[in-house]
Design goal:
Strand order of the largest sheet: 4-3-5-6-17-16-14-11
Mean pLDDT: 82
Number of domains: 2
CATH superfamily of the largest domain: Class I glutamine amidotransferase (GATase) domain
Number of helices: 9
CATH topology of the largest domain: Rossmann fold
Number of strands: 17
CATH architecture of the largest domain: 3-Layer(aba) Sandwich
Distance between the termini: 27 Å
Radius of gyration: 22 Å
Structural class: alpha/beta
CATH class of the largest domain: Alpha Beta
Strand content: 15-25%
Helix content: 25-40%
Length: about 325
């Protein structure tokens, strides 16, 4: 995972299949042109930028397993290591993720983030219990712009839990983010106050409550919400532990995490099984394309057959990529 002062990688321009076919790389000594399709062009479905510039947890320490799963789904996660967050830093990214920041955002940073979302970007805001180093104030400086407040409390469930503090969440509203999710666990997360056009997607159940008097049993404390703002989307969750390295494979934690970033990047989340089937077919088509290139470079097929097969494979790959994006 790249990290460091201001380090980020921009998304490569996706070259249309017909354009690639006509401008492929020459095969040495043959005068023929093959359609070379770099993996970044062919399978990059979404890009996520994780902010570490406001003293958030290190991505590598907390979310490296999630990053690997994201890569397997055709995405990529990068790290911004030094403030400020600018419009230039956000260019080329689908999603900006901020996890309980311990330093405040400047007015210019907030404006850049707001413009990013309004212009079609996704914003993923992650909370935690308590308010160490005043991170709630810092996080709420952003979230309240969208009608969501991270409360200074902890959501607890006396019956559906693991140990003393780990609450099992199993009450959901239907939404692409909750597709294929039956339960996930919050490990000491906070509740949310949700107003405006934000939609609550997950809550505690009938005997869940939160500390500090925010929600009593029977109030169904919200822990996950989503909204659309301008051309973009925002997701707020009261705890990010469910997709940390040591918890991501519990219950449906991984599915929920992938659904969130997929929806934020403009897609409509599918079940894990459906997505795996699509990715498998993409890999098979890519292998067929490599075989086609080999036949063409050896002179075993003519230009017309090569072009016909290449366009056939390319059109199907485009269909599959659109399906992943929803």
């Amino acid at each position: 995972m790249p990290s460091g002062a201001g380090l980020h990688r921009r998304r490569s321009r996706r070259i249309p299949w017909k354009e690639r076919l006509l401008t492929g790389n020459p095969v040495l000594g043959s005068g023929r042109h093959l359609l070379r399709v770099p993996a970044d062009h062919r399978r990059l479905i979404m890009t996520l930028l994780y902010d570490e510039s406001h003293k958030e947890p290190r991505f590598e320490d907390y979310y490296s397993a999630f990053s690997r799963y994201l890569t397997n789904q055709g995405g990529r996660a990068d790290v911004l290591g030094a403030a400020p967050i600018t419009t230039e830093h956000l260019k080329g990214y689908d999603v900006l993720m901020i996890s309980f920041p311990q330093e405040m955002f400047s007015d210019d940073e907030i404006s850049a983030i707001m413009d990013f979302v309004a212009g079609g970007g996704g914003l993923f805001l992650v909370g935690e219990e308590g308010d160490f180093n005043h991170f709630k104030k810092n996080l709420n400086a952003l979230s309240t712009r969208f009608g969501v407040t991270f409360n200074d409390d902890e959501v607890l469930d006396p019956t559906d839990r693991i140990g003393e503090y780990y609450s099992i969440i199993h009450t959901f509203e239907e939404h692409p983010i909750t597709s294929g999710v039956e339960k996930f666990v919050i490990y000491g997360g906070c509740s949310l106050k949700v107003e405006g056009n934000a939609k609550v997607l997950a809550t505690g159940d009938d005997d869940s409550y939160s500390t500090e008097g925010y929600y009593k049993a029977g109030d169904y404390p919200p822990v996950l919400c989503a909204l659309e703002h301008g051309s973009g989307r925002v997701v707020c969750v009261g705890d990010g532990s469910f997709f940390r390295n040591n918890f991501i494979n519990e219950f449906n934690n991984k599915q929920l995490a992938l659904n969130i970033v997929n929806w934020l990047s403009g897609g409509e989340a599918e079940t894990g099984a459906e997505k795996e089937d699509v990715m498998k077919e993409i890999e098979e088509l890519e292998q067929k394309y490599d075989e086609l290139n080999a036949l063409y470079s050896e002179g075993k097929i003519d230009d017309d057959e090569y072009r016909r097969k290449a366009e056939e494979y390319g059109q199907r790959l485009d269909q599959l990529e659109r399906k992943l994006k929803g």
